Amino acid sequence: MQTSVVGPSASMGLPASDQRFRELLESLPRVAVQGYDSQRRVIYWNEASERLYGFSEQEARGRCLEALLIPDEMADIVVDAHHAWVNHGTQIPASELELKHKSGAPVPVFSHHVMLGERSDNPLMFCIDIDLAGERKVQRELDYMTRFDPLTELPNRQTFETELENMLGECQRHGDTLMVLFLDIDHFTEINDTQGYEMGDLVIRSVASRLQGFQRSQDLLSRFGGDEFVMAMPRLDYESDALSVVERIREDFQRPFQIEGRELLLRLSIGVSLYPENGNDAPELVRNADVAKHRAKQAGRDGYQFFNQEVRDAMLHQHHLAGRLQTLLSEDGGGELFLHFQPQVAARSERIESVEALMRWHAPEGPIPPTDFIKVAERTNLIERLGDWVIRQACRQQAEWHAMGIKGYRIDINISGRQAINSDVFQRLEACVAEYGLTPRDIGIELTENVLIDADVKVRDSLRALHDRGYKIAIDDFGTGYSSMSYLKMLPVTALKIDRSFVIECAQEPKDRAIMEATVFLGHRLGLEVVAEGVENIQQLELLREMRCDLIQGYYFYKPMAAADIQRLLSGGNNPPHPGAHRPSSDPTSASNGCH
Ligand code: C2E
Ligand code: CA
Ligand code: CA
Fold first, then answer.
1. Do both 289 and 344 map to the same domain?
2. Rounded distance, CA 26 to CA 2, Å?
3. Is residue 555 lining ligand 1, measured as CB closer than 6 Å?
4. Which atom of ligand 1 is nearest to the CA of 553?
5. What gap in Å lies between CA 40 and CA 399, rounded to an integer?
6. What are the tens digits of pLDDT across the range 443-474?
7. Whose CA is nearest to atom 12 of ligand 1?
8. How many domains does the chain have?
9. Bond before 370 cis per omega within 30 degrees
C-alpha cells in the first residue's frame, strides 16, 4: 500500500520524523488526508479519503481539488483562497465545510489545511478532513428526540405549543378562526392494566394514525403524553367546521380497531376550544380544551363538549346560516339576497354623486343583518363567493342603468378584510367590469384601514394598479382602525369615509367634532375626497358643511333603497331632495335601522 503512494516524504525527501508522521496519517481511519501540488492536483490521497469521498487513490490522483470535492458554488472561492495562500501567504483557516462525495451527496467535514514548502517553487497543500456525518446524525437524532414523541412520531407538547403559537399569529393577521381539540381515549388505563403495556403502545399508535386521517395539510396533531392527543385546526370552513369535524371523528371511532388480530372498540372524549372566543394564546386554548374534555368525561364517556355552550350554540347557528347562504349563492341569490343602494350626495349642491351597494338578506323568517351574515361568510370561507356575487350584481345593475340612460353614478362596493386577503378579488373585479362593458369610473371600492395596512405586497400592488387605472378607493369607517396617519400617504386611496360613530354626536361632542375637522383637513391636504356617513339631521349636515366635507351619506338625505326605487330616483333627473322627501319610509332590512 505505502509503496504505491507517492506521499509527501517520497516526493520531497522528508526526514524520518516526517515519515513517521505520514505513517500516523495513514493509520487514522477517520482522518482523511489529501495532498495537492501548486496547481491543486492530487498528489496524495489516503484510504480514509477514499472512504469519505468515494474516489479511489487512482481515480483521484492528478485531478484538481475543485473538480473532485468542491461543490460548484464554492469552486471560485477555493481557487482564490489557494492563490492567496501561495502568492501572499494568507492561510486558509480551519473550518466546518460541506464538500461533495463522488455520488454528488454532501459530505460534512471539519477541514484543516497545511502548506508544506511554502516558500519553495513547489508548495504543497495538505487537507486534513474529519468526517462530521456521525456528529450531524447524532445532533439530528437528539433534535428529533426533543421535538417528537418516539412512539407515534407526532410532535410532542413543546413542539405543538410553539407551532400553535406561530399559527395563532397567522390567524390574528388574517382574521381566521382556529379550533383546538383535546382528545383522550376512554378506559385506556384498563387496557394497559389488563392487556399489558405493549398492547397499550399499539393502541396509542393506532389511534394516532387514525387521527392523522383527519389532519389537513395545515393542521397540527400532537401526542401530549399518555393517551392524550391535541389537534389544532385553523381556517375551518363550511365543509369542515368545528361541529362536523368532531362528529366525523366520533363516527369514525364507531368502527373497531384491528390490533394484533384482535378487534377492539375504542372511544374518545373530546374537548373543544375556539380561537378567538376561548383564548388568545396556545396555553390558554389548550387548557380550555382540556377543561372541556374533563366535562365531557364527567358527562359520560364517548362525548364531546365545547368550552362554553354559547359558543357551541353560536356555531350551530353559524353552521345553519352558512349552509343556507351557500345554497342561495348557488341559485344566484335565490330571491333572498339583494343589493340595496344608498346615495352619496355633494354636501353643497345635494346632487347625488354615487351610490354605495349594501347587501340585504330577506330571509323567510325576517331580514338578517349584513353584519351578521357577512361575519358568518368570512368564517366559513363563503366570503369569496358572496363578494363575487356582490361584484357581479353591482356590475350587472350598472350596465342595466347605462342601457336605460342612467349614467354617471358610480356604484361603490364594500370589500371585507377576509375577502381582500389575496389579490385575486381585484382581478376578478376588473374582469367583471370589462365583461359588462363598464369603465373604472363606474365601480368603486371601500375598504377599512386595517385591511389596507395588513395587506401584503401583492394585494397592495393590485390596489395600486386599480388606483392607477382610475378606480376610486375609499377608506371605510375612517378613524376606527389603527388610525396611523403616516400610512395614509403610502396607501393608494382616493377618499376617506368618516365613521358614523363620530358623526352621531358631533353636535354635542366637541372631541368628535375635532376629529372630524382634522380628518377633513388632513384628507384635503393629501388630495383626498372626504365623505361623512350616517348623517341623520340638519345639525350634523351643517357642521359638516362648515368643515367643507365633500360628500354626505345618511338617512337625512336617503336610506339604502332597492334597485327599483333608486332607478326611479336617478331617472327622475336627480334633483336635490327636500330633506326627508326622498327618504323611503323604511328600509326594513338595514341592520342599522332597528333590526338588531
Ligand atoms: P358600512 O360599509 O359602514 O355601511 C354603512 C352602514 O350604515 C349601512 O348599514 C347603512 O345602511 C348604514 N347607514 C347609512 N346611513 C345611516 C344613517 O344615517 N344612520 C344609521 N343609523 N345608519 C346608516 P348596513 O347596510 O346594515 O351594513 C352594515 C355593514 O355591513 C356595512 O357597513 C358593511 O361593513 C357591511 N356590508 C354591507 N354590505 C356589504 C357587502 O356587500 N360586502 C361587504 N363586504 N360588506 C357589506
Ligand atoms: Ca361602506
Ligand atoms: Ca362605514
1. no
2. 9
3. yes
4. 15
5. 76
6. 999 998 888 877 888 888 999 999 999 999 99
7. 592
8. 3
9. no
For residue 254 the three cell numbers come to 364507531
CA dist 36 and 64 (Å) reads 8
Residue 358 Cβ contacting ligand 1 at under 6 Å: yes
Q: How many CB atoms lie within 10 A of CB 153?
A: 12
DSSP for 344-407? Answer: EEETTT--EEEEEEEEEEEETTEEE-HHHHHHHHHHTT-HHHHHHHHHHHHHHHHHHHHHTT--
Domain holding 217: CATH number?
Answer: 3.30.70.270
- Whether 426 and 445 map to the same domain: the answer is yes
Q: Residue 593 CA: which ligand 1 atom is closest?
A: 21
Domain around 222? 148-307
Name which of 423, 434, 384, 410 is nearest 529 in CA terms: 410
Is 110 contained in some domain?
yes
- In angstroms, the CA 33 to CA 21 distance is 12
Same domain for 523 and 406? yes
HSE value, Cβ hemisphere, 13 Å, CA-based, for 394: 33
Statement to judge: residues 115 and 206 lie in one domain:
no
Distance 533 CA to ligand 3 centre (A): 7
Per residue in 164-204, pLDDT tens? Answer: 999 999 999 888 889 999 999 998 988 888 888 899 999 99
Of the given ranges (180-184, 379-383, 404-408), which has the lowest mean pLDDT?
A: 379-383
Q: How far apart are CA 496 and CA 473, in angstroms?
A: 9
Kindly identify the ligand whose nearest atom is closest to the C-alpha of 377: 1
> What CA–CA distances, in Å, run from 6 to 19, 27, 35, 118?
12, 16, 10, 19
Residue 438 has phi, psi (to 5 degrees) of -100, 175
CATH number at residue 517: 3.20.20.450
Predicted local distance difference test score (pLDDT) of residue 153: 94
Ligand nearest to the CA of 344: 1
Question: C-alpha cell of 200?
Answer: 397499550
pLDDT of residue 556: 96
Indicate which residue's Cα is closest to atom 4 of ligand 1. Answer: 358
* Whether the Cβ atoms of residue 272 and residue 305 lie closer than 8 Å to each other: yes
**Could you tell me if the CB of 367 is within 6 A of ligand 1?**
no
